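re: ur question from yesterday

yeah so i grabbed the chain u mentioned. its 359 aa long if i counted rite. heres the sequnce exactly as i have it in my notes:
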Amino acid sequence: MMGINFLIGNIFDMKILRGVLVAFFVMSVSCTPSGSKPVGSAYAISVTDFRGKEIHLAKPATRIVCLIESALSGLYMLNAESRVVGVPSSVYNESTATQYAILDDRIKNKNLPSPGNWDFVSLENLVALKPDLVIIWSSQQESIEAIEEKGIPVYGVFLKSFSDVYKEIDDLGKLTGTTQRADSIINYTKNEISIIQSQLKERHHEQSEAISKSVYFIWSQGLLETSGATSTVNELIELAGAKNACRQPQEHIVVNMENLLQWNPDVMLMWYNDSKNANDYLTMPELRYINAIKNKQVYELPSVFWCDLWTLKYQYAVKLLAKNCYPETFENLNLDLEKQKMMKALYKNNLLINNLLIK
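ran it thru and got these structure tokens back, copy pasting raw so excuse formatting
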């Protein structure tokens, strides 16, 4: 009889223990932040890249090879630069090289390896860096397949709008464990854009017949290379309260001189070009009948580092274009002060910021 009682007691105790364990499991799951996995699970971080592929990491990445300059800029904004072990070759030989040399002594001293760029990747050199995350353009499919075959997670990027820029920064924040910083700089940028939008709405309210100026955008490849209605450039122009003179749908398009003369834009905006400036177009005799030329409304964006349309710094290009299109509305907008404010919000080191601003 005592044996039976002992057995029943043990069964009863087991039921109690099982109940306690279940309750503890439920509490543990309920305390796990939304969108993440428990620390002891196979992965703690999960994002979907621009290919639509899920990227899983057990912990924030600490050895990142980033082969996209704009994404690299984002990592510096997130204060995650110490995690970068490989960079695109463009940071050493293109227009942003001077600024990156100021941002990072490793780049200044050329100590950071560059195993590739947008058009080429050395798989051997990349694997030798032992990355736990690679950031690359999603169009580089062959390279991505080769990297993933080595068991290395790849975050593929394809940016076609400013909302994509926000997604990229949000994802990189999760992948590097800097979500609070990501939220902060995204919200800052959105707020800066909303301020411009509010001023433009006030302009239209005060001037019931206010007409939006037409803008023709010029890529650095030449006068007749522009962007159409389904492009980041078009979004830039519309955020500045203007309209794109080129209504053709292409992202990047080569037009003819007849198109340009027919569109007769009010403003011409140049992408940064180290071999041409606004005066080169202002003095072209074949353009003399275009409104932008007659009214001397041709402007050039500053070097790519300051207003890269594929980073959160696109806000500066919006402000610059808005002020050039509508100087009366934005007469109190000081572009130099706006640049300083942006840099202090997006980068952490005041000494570096000061050095950047004088370059």
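noticed a couple things. The first helix runs from residue 2 to 30. also Confidence is low (pLDDT under 50) at residues 1-41.
anyway ttyl
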